[in-house]
Write a structure and sequence with these properties.
Layout lengths: L9 H4 L5 H13 L1 H8 L3 H27 L13 H9 L13 E3 L5 H6 L4 H9 L29 H15 L6 E6 L6 H13 L3 E7 L2 E2 L2 E2 H4 L7 H4 L3 E6 L3 H16 L5 E6 L11 H7 L2 H8 L3 H11 L2 E2 L4 E2 L4 H35 L17 H8 L1
Parallel strand pairs: 1-2, 2-3, 3-7, 6-7
Antiparallel strand pairs: 4-5, 8-9
The structure holds thiamine diphosphate (TPP) and magnesium ion.
Thiamine diphosphate binds next to strand 4.
């Protein structure tokens, strides 16, 4: 994909495929026969949709970073380098509309999983409006933690860990209504240290809830390294709760897809919950304000190691160098002409997403210019209103 010197981590700027990393990408999928079968059964359109989702996620974040640099917003929380841990799992879910008019499966993203929102069908313009706090944003300008229940997206909860409990509640309702639905949430390595994580895991386990939890282990919580807040291996945790679970390569979108697809099937068979662990790395700061501190938190070699594993670069290489003709959608012999054709298919897809993000940015900025919330609206749609005198003071 096109790289952006003003916004990308330095390791991504002159990104070239590393043979060992690309070989590892394929080996990872082939190691597990069940995951391999799932990946091999993916249609070309699904492979391309995964690529498109990854690019959309990266470009959404770049649009936000541009706004920060331009002073449009003060700060943004990004998922740079962790896109595969969001996009793969979301694509493996059943996103069709059920008979009640809601998405069949549900997700509860955290701020690092903005990609889940757009891949569940939330318009990019609305997501960007959320950051601007416009009156036509999904929360009518109240909060940037946005979701869309109809589209199966619970809004992120600022208190980390609490989304676990809400997701379990949703999964419990699916079970009680005997619906073949699944609820998925992500939780950071740091947030697994909250009490609510363990209470929820235990409840979900004993109730056999159709719930998937992905521990997104990006090796850091704000400015605290994993080795400062964690001992042992996350891969031991599913057994502690007596449930199924496994680790996947959080920078390999196909491994992420296949692991979650299997987890969702287990949940639908009544074998939930499933605890997955995504091994990945945060390629920036906690948010845009502390990128420099993040660089001081870890050795440069660690950034370099994970930089070679850019989930988009590696997947792109896998598609370009493969034997599937992305244009004719047929398996063919590997040739230079095929490589060129496949690269062309991906770059026109990328261009479409660039246009989509540009359009969304313009629409959101237009809302910012013309449609900011009225001060009086702060008292609308709330559980309790302040006395009239206090409200008038607040808006004057
Ligand atoms: C209950 C609670 N405590 C503290 C915070 C402040 N806080 C926000 S994000 C964060 C770190 C989260 O780290 P991790 O769970 O690893 O997720 P990551 O940011 O790495 O994706 C903290 C401590 C909070 N939002 N909620
Ligand atoms: Mg973390």
């Amino acid at each position: 994909m096109i790289r952006y010197p003003a916004f990308d981590p330095p390791e991504y700027l002159d990104w070239k495929p590393d043979t060992e990393v690309v070989d590892d990408f394929t080996r990872t999928i082939e190691t597990d026969s069940l995951r391999n079968t799932i990946v091999r059964s993916l249609e070309p359109a699904q492979l391309l949709a995964l690529y498109e989702g990854l690019v959309r996620n990266r470009l959404h974040d770049i649009a936000l970073k541009r706004w920060v640099k331009q002073g449009v917003i003060s700060k943004a929380w990004l998922g740079t380098g962790e896109e595969a841990a969001t996009i793969g799992p979301v694509h493996s879910l059943d996103r069709s509309v059920a008979s009640d008019g809601l998405s069949t499966d549900f997700v509860a993203p955290m701020i690092r999983n903005a990609g889940a929102c757009h891949e569940m069908g939330m318009p990019l313009a609305d997501m960007l409006r959320g950051y601007l706090g416009t009156a036509d944003s999904p929360t009518r300008g109240r909060d940037l933690h946005i979701g869309d229940f109809k589209r199966g997206v619970l809004a992120p909860i600022s208190q980390v860990g609490d989304a676990m409990a809400v997701t379990a509640g949703l999964a419990l309702s699916f079970k009680l209504k005997r619906e073949a639905r699944v609820a998925l949430t992500w939780i950071g390595d740091g947030s697994t240290k909250s009490g609510v994580f363990h209470e929820t895991m235990n409840l979900a386990a004993v109730q056999r809830l159709p719930m998937i939890v992905i521990i997104q282990n990006n090796k850091v919580a704000l400015g605290t390294r994993l080795d400062q807040h964690h001992r042992g291996s996350f891969s031991d945790w599913p057994a502690c709760y007596g449930i199924e679970g496994s680790t996947f390569d959080g920078n390999n979108v196909l491994d992420a897809y296949a692991a979650t697809k299997l987890a969702a099937a287990a949940c639908r068979e009544g074998k939930g919950p499933v605890l997955l662990i995504a091994d990945t790395f945060r390629m920036g700061g906690h948010a845009t304000h502390d990128e420099r501190e993040a660089r001081a938190t870890f050795d440069a070699q660690l950034f370099s190691y994970w930089g070679k594993r850019d989930p988009i670069g590696v997947y792109e290489t896998f598609l370009i160098e493969g034997t599937l003709d992305l244009e004719s959608k047929r398996g063919v012999k590997r040739t230079d002409a095929l490589r060129e054709r496949n690269a062309g298919v991906l770059s026109s897809l990328e261009q479409r997403v660039i246009d989509e993000v540009d359009q969304a940015t313009l629409q959101a900025l237009e809302s910012g210019r013309t449609n900011m919330p009225r001060a009086e609206s702060a008292a609308e749609g709330v559980y309790a209103e302040a006395p009239v005198e206090a409200a008038s003071i607040a808006v004057s």
